[in-house]
Write a structure and sequence with these properties.
- It contains 25 helices and five strands.
- The chain is an alpha/beta fold and 525 residues long.
- The protein folds into two domains: 360 residues, no CATH class; 135 residues, 3-Layer(aba) Sandwich (Rossmann fold), CATH 3.40.50.
- Strands 2-1-3-5-4 form a five-stranded mixed β-sheet, sandwiched between helices.
């Protein structure tokens, strides 16, 4: 029987795959560079200017491995350091994730592949992280690649299996080098190979051993980073969910139509979930789970793989959070999204044709409503463009920047883009390596804050050597007033005040000022 053009297109690989990629790219590229980099993104942007050696030194003070920052530095060397260029890496890796997930589920049917790929392409949560200069989109691409290689290795002859096992080990190691929480997702592979026979289990063990060997150089990083206040901020948000509802909250956030609030709003509990979102969730997952728990065909095996890569990471994160809260719906649970999409894609494909059409219609309508806020201006104001416009022209050679609060990565990123790289100091001095780890105990203790301000002022004055000291005063953090007093005690006087940014009503961004302090022997800037 000769197939017509439409049938050939639907039964082929690239036609539906191109549709998934087009939708994913369109949603992630729209108005990509309109909003400035926020705090976390600006730290990524700052590191993109550094040499690989400096990236490794600064990334060691982060809570993530260095692979993303090294990749972003190489990417920025090719495409530039603008907001659009830096975020484009996440756009590409996020869109490729949708294509890889499509390819995994496509082994069962075209309908399953399209449904799985579109589940990623339309996911509001994935769209958000695919539009940010952070490591999460790249992480999901590597996890999805590991899943695809694992399932391929289990379904091929010996010669082909070895190639796929090698690719699985490389993807797994790269995922761990991108974010440590990849371990939660990769652990599901153990359950996927159960019942596949001893040869498959032995090969999986060897591939896992290679992954561990490739990841061993990270051990010193883990030992250093384990003592950082990396996840302390999560506890209040985790308790507010509350914890027993964390996994249902994750499933809601994975679904088109999800309500995804900004992190501060979690403090007041999650919003009411839309009933249609959970109906859509049930229509996709229930048939997929039923397929996963019985049968031995390729469709059933892929459904079981999706179920394992969805449930096990979330359960392990929940268990780990008993000791130290790390489960934050809407961020680290992203590692389970590929499994969710694969399982949901298989489930939707098992519905009658009318049911699939109805699910697709509801998903598109809900996704359109939930994605709209992602393309509006952010509720906070960054300082990058204001710094480039106001502060960069005022800086003179030899001037020193003295930072308080959280403004350092945004300001330094903007100055580097403007071709300025002045010397800088921080208060507290310990935040020079990573501005996110402010010692709030010190800042909230007047006597300790005064001593630290005096130390920072003396260091800045010594480095300035007669030039101006620009104090960045973030009114949202204590320390600005004591720094002013410390500089004035050394004989400096305020000469210029620049208002860099005012936070919009209701935002967390407080007004940020740049105050130029000069010594009486120093001419005013």
């Amino acid at each position: 029987m000769k197939l017509d053009g439409k049938a050939r297109w639907m039964r082929g690989w690239w036609g539906p795959g191109a549709l998934v990629m087009t939708v994913a790219m369109a949603l992630r590229c729209f108005r990509l560079g309109e909003v400035e980099l926020w705090f976390d993104e600006s730290y990524s942007g700052l590191l993109s200017f550094f040499t690989p050696q400096d990236i490794l030194r600064y990334a060691r003070a982060e809570v993530a491995p260095p692979l993303y920052y090294l990749t972003l530095g190489a990417w920025a060397g090719l495409f530039g350091h603008s907001e659009t260029a830096l975020r484009a890496l996440s756009v590409v890796t996020g869109s490729l994730t949708a294509l890889v997930v499509y390819g995994v589920a496509r082994k069962t049917s075209v309908a399953a592949g399209l449904a799985a790929g579109m589940a990623v392409a339309l996911s509001p949560l994935h769209v958000q992280y695919s539009r940010q200069a952070r490591m999460y989109a790249m992480l999901l691409l590597l996890i999805s690649g590991a899943i695809a290689c694992l399932l391929r290795a289990l379904g091929h002859g010996r010669a082909a299996r070895l190639r796929w096992w090698a690719a699985y080990a490389l993807c797994s190691a790269a995922a761990i080098w991108t974010h440590y929480f990849a371990v939660f997702a990769l652990s599901a592979g153990l359950f996927v190979v159960l019942g596949r026979g001893r040869p498959a289990q032995r090969e999986f063990g060897l591939a896992t051993a290679v992954t561990v060997l490739l990841s061993l150089p990270l051990v010193p990083w883990v030992l250093v980073q384990a003592h950082l206040p990396a996840t302390d901020w999560i506890e209040a948000l985790y308790r507010a969910i509350p914890p027993p509802l964390a996994i249902p909250r994750t499933l809601e956030l994975f679904t088109p139509g999800a309500l995804y609030p900004s992190y501060p709003q979690f403090r007041f509990g999650p919003p009411l979930c839309r009933p249609m979102t959970f109906l859509l969730l049930s229509a996709a997952l229930i048939p997929g789970v039923l397929c996963a728990i019985r049968g031995a065909s390729e469709e059933h095996r892929i459904a079981r793989g999706g179920l394992a890569f969805l449930i096990l990471p979330l359960v392990l994160m929940s268990a780990a959070s008993i000791l130290r809260p790390i489960y934050l719906p809407g961020r680290y649970d992203l590692v389970a999204l590929p499994g969710f999409a694969i399982l949901g894609g298989v489930g939707i494909a098992r519905l009658p044709r009318a049911g699939r059409a109805l699910v697709a219609l509801v998903a598109v309508v809900l996704a359109a409503g939930s994605l709209a806020p992602y393309f509006r201006p952010a509720m906070y104001a960054s300082v990058s463009r204001a710094v480039a416009r106001n502060l960069a022209p005022a800086l003179q050679p030899g001037d020193v920047l003295l930072f308080t609060g959280y403004s350092m990565p945004e300001v330094r990123y903007a100055l580097l883009r403007a071709g300025r790289d002045p010397m800088f100091r921080t208060m507290p001095l310990s935040s020079a390596q990573h501005p996110g780890w402010l010692d709030l105990g010190l800042l909230n203790d007047p006597s300790r804050r005064r001593l630290e301000s005096n130390r920072a002022a003396r260091e800045a004055a010594a480095v300035a050597s007669g030039r101006s000291v620009w104090l960045l005063v973030d009114k949202g953090q204590p320390g600005g007033r004591t720094m002013i007093d410390a500089l004035e005690a050394l004989g400096f006087r305020a000469a210029v005040v620049l208002n860099l940014v005012d936070g919009p009503p209701g935002s967390w961004r407080q007004p940020l000022y740049a105050v130029a302090f000069v010594h009486p022997k120093t001419p005013s800037p």
